[in-house]
Amino acid sequence: MNIKEVVEFIIGEEKMRSRKDLDIWCRSTRRHKLYEYVKRFAPEDWGRFQAPKSEVRRTYEELLTGYKDYRPRI
Question: Tens of pLDDT along 35-54?
Fold first, then answer.
């Protein structure tokens, strides 16, 4: 699995829809819990990126509501 697939799987399994849902799931660990899951299930992809946490963050910000959309408007 790659980083995007793992993040999508976790969000789907935990039925997360928003930033608040992710905050509740991670509790006081900030995003450490999510990063550790992704690192465990996608170790090859994790090592491929210079900043794998940024890739995880980009993915969940695209999938969940409550984050600003930085994509360019056409």
Answer: 999 999 999 999 999 999 99
